[in-house]
Amino acid sequence: MRSIRSSSRARTNSERGFALIAAIGLAILYIALIELLLIDSSRELAEARRFRAKIVAATLAENGAELAAAAMLTRVSANVNATDAQGTMTGNLRKTPDGKFEISGSGSTAGVVQTTSRVELRGAIVGDRVSIEFAVHNP
């Protein structure tokens, strides 16, 4: 009888050892999977921040150009600067005597990711009618 118990006990210990090794292996795979998910989510977050900064910088540049354009019919030149929680915007207006104009705007974001963007507009004013002939957006 002793030989039967000892062989059954030995088999039980080896089964327990296999279960322990399998559990440790699964735990290591699970931790590795979580680590990969953390790395991927960190990369995605950084990419989303960069994308948001580009959009905000472009919007600030356009807002700067609009601020400069607000004085287009009454002034020959204008330089404007404004700052808000999103960043800084600047705008410049230059008009020539023949009715041509150039407006440039730039925006710089504030925050974790700092990005700048520029916009340039060229056109003409005939009477009270404004036409834009050329527009460039630079990221």
What does this structure look like?
There is one protein chain. The protein has 139 residues and is of the alpha+beta class. The protein has one domain. Helices cover 49% and strands 34% of the residues. It has one helix at residues 2-69; strands spanning 77-83, 87-95, 100-109, 116-126, 129-138. Strands 1-2-3-4-5 form a five-stranded antiparallel sheet. The chain is rod-shaped, with a radius of gyration of 33 Å.
Summarize the structure.
The chain has 139 residues and is α+β, with helices and mostly antiparallel strands.
Helix-strand blueprint:
Layout: H1 2-69, E1 77-83, E2 87-95, E3 100-109, E4 116-126, E5 129-138
Antiparallel strand pairs: 1-2, 2-3, 3-4, 4-5
- Count of helix runs: 1
Main beta sheet: 5 strands, antiparallel
Shape: rod-shaped
- The number of domains is 1
User: What is the assembly state of the chains in this entry?
Assistant: single chain
| H/E topology pattern | HEEEEE
Strands, total number: 5
Percentage of residues in helical conformation: 40-55%
As a whole number of angstroms, the C-alpha radius of gyration is: 33 Å
Main β-sheet, spatial strand arrangement: 1-2-3-4-5
